[in-house]
Amino acid sequence: MTHDVTNQSPPFENVNLFTSDLALMEAVEREGGAAERERLTRFGALTGSPAAFERGRLANENAPKLRAFDAKGYRRDFVEFTPAYHECMALSMAEGLHCNSWNHIASGAPIAKGSNVVRAAGSYMATQMESGHCCPITMTNASIATLIQEPALAQVWLPKVLSRNYDKTFRPVAQKSAATIGMGMTEKQGGTDVRANTTRAEPVGGGGRAGEYLITGHKWFMSAPMCDAFLILAQAPSGLSCFLLPRFLPDGSVNAMRLQRLKDKLGNRSNASAEVEFVGAHAWLIGEEGRGVPTIIEMVTYTRLDCAVASAGLMRLCLANAIHHCRHRAVFGTQLADQPLMRHLLADLALDVEAATALAFRLARAFDFPDDPLETAWRRIMTPVTKYWNCKIAPALAYEAMECLGGNGYVEESLLARAYRELPVNAIWEGSGNVMCLDVLRVLLREPDAAEAVFNYFEDAVSSEPRLAAQLDWVRQFLHRPRDIEANARSFVEGLALLAAGCILNTGAPPYVADAFIGSRLGGRWRNTYGACLEKVDSKAIIDRAWPP
Fold it and tell me: CA of 396: how far to CAs of 22, 109, 403, 414, in Å?
């Protein structure tokens, strides 16, 4: 060695991803999950350990492989994963991230308050450990909302789905200790427009509710093809319908689901996504023929919540890494974190991370109160709003955090390179930005009672803050401009997200955070980069809150 190396930040590891995150802990407590603080503390230590981050690295460097045939040439259609991926799955399923907000289903009791908030906190941390495995975890959890609409199928599948085991074996569900469920909706010719699907469903015998159908067609994106069953959409005689398609049939034979290839994705590389053809595959109807979209939309709503939570979690990981590095790195004789320009930048990043976290957990709370009119309205309107804003701002924030590390952030050894590639998928999956905006407008225009419930909530929340009151007035006025509302829907939805985040922070965060967020985001100055619009804020206090020294 020719010289001593100094001025490098220590590895980012041995971090408790719960107790080191004040905004997360306060959001969990504020939204009803305080009773599980000890459990989340234990999970935070597991997901922030050196072993956890190493698992994430290995799972992404060793991508899944398709084994379409066995040694004798018979169809196998099996996806092979590295052991690190299975370890991530086992950890998250033991924590119940695939099901613990549905524990009440087995007993028939009401949902335990805080269940979705606590599950969201676990997901927020698990995605920082490794994001790709969260896809089947998310879909399994979300599938329950659709499965319970068909009691005959739920009776067979729910005991396996609610199990805390992880069973990676490729065999019929009756022989397994647990099951995961994926989803296939998009096709080549339609994408988001699932009503353009051409996959056919032909009834076997009489068909009807929970009846058997033969599925012929394709899916351009089949998420998590190693799952034990899938919820899919196909054209039945009476129109687009929802089906449960298992990997194995009741007689133990493999269903006719032919995996064509695995997608070579920008990020999300530890998780498999496939192109698939159905050649007379057997599936069972959920709900009524012709009601496929309303039947599966509950599953989609839960996955959108997870997209918002995961984006907030990955933004948090990027921010913590940036502050950690800047506190240990000196440039021109001064620690980076103490230099005014860097301090402003880090504080600006921290404001968006705290706002995204606040929005995600306020939304999770709405899922814990299915019978409350305000929470139902919040869930209907703010699910697409929160998904839109959290997922849209995340890639830019990750890039800025990466730049704080310089070259160290741009190499694959850095956690930030993987996070940066990962983040765009949350905006694209389960409805792109434009789709989210149109969903918001659809609810506001078609469900005036829901809109009024949410706006009345804002009226009460903005009474003590004139800048928030002005933002609410702008939002209300926008709705009275029907001729250009669709073309400008992105501006409107972003404004609604900023209003909601400002309201939550105004009562739930320290004044120096709330005032800095409201003043910089609603102050009227347009910004194109982070660190450009903060004035007269306590940037050191904001940074110390985001990553306690």
Answer: 23, 43, 11, 17
CA-to-CA dists, residue 223 to 9, 97, 548, angstroms: 38, 18, 38
Could you tell me which of 533, 530, 498 has the C-alpha nearest to residue 514?
498
What domain range is 97 assigned to? Answer: 22-171
Among candidates 365, 368, 422, which has minimal Cα distance to 397?
Answer: 422
Is 271 part of any domain?
A: yes
CA 244 to chain centre: 23
Question: Do 226 and 303 lie in a common domain?
Answer: no
pLDDT by residue for the chain (549 residues), tens only, comes to 688 888 889 999 999 999 999 999 999 999 999 999 999 999 999 999 999 999 999 999 999 999 999 899 988 899 999 999 999 999 999 999 999 999 888 777 788 899 999 999 999 999 999 999 999 999 999 999 999 999 999 999 999 999 999 999 999 999 999 999 999 988 988 777 888 899 999 999 877 777 999 999 999 999 899 999 999 999 999 999 999 999 999 999 999 999 999 999 999 999 999 999 999 999 999 999 999 999 999 999 999 999 999 999 999 999 999 999 999 998 888 999 999 999 999 999 999 999 999 999 999 999 999 999 999 999 999 999 999 999 999 999 999 999 999 999 999 989 999 999 999 999 999 999 999 999 999 999 899 999 999 999 999 999 989 999 999 999 999 888 777 789 999 999 999 999 999 999 999 999 999 999 999 999 877 677 898 877 789 999 999 999 998
Does residue 92 sit in the same domain as residue 197?
no
**Same domain? 198 vs 346:** no
Give the 3-state secondary structure of 84-144. HHHHHHHHHHHCCCCCHHHHHHHHCCCCCCCHHHHHHHHHHHHHHHCCCCHHHHHHHHHHH
Task: Give the CATH number of the domain where residue 507 resides.
Answer: 1.20.140.10
Asked if 243 and 272 sit in the same domain, the reply is yes
Helix (H) / strand (E) element for 286: namely strand 273-286
Q: Of 144, 171, 198, which marks where a domain is finished?
A: 171
Say how far apart CA 253 and CA 74 lie, in whole Å: 13
First to last CA, the chain: 33
Q: State the CB neighbour count (10 A cutoff) for residue 200.
A: 15
In a domain, 61, yes or no: yes
- State how many domains the chain has: 3
> Are 330 and 284 found together in one domain?
no
Assigned domain for 113 exists = yes
Read off the tokens for 452: 């009024």
Please provide the DSSP assignment of 229-242 as one string: EEEEEEEETTEEEE
CB 353 within 8 A of CB 275: no
CATH number at residue 208: 2.40.110.20
3-state secondary structure of 274: strand
Q: Of all helices (H) and strands (E), which one includes residue 65?
A: strand 65-69
Instruction: Answer yes or no: do 84 and 220 share one domain.
Output: no
pTM metric for this prediction: 0.96
3 state DSSP class of 526: coil
Inside any domain, residue 393 = yes
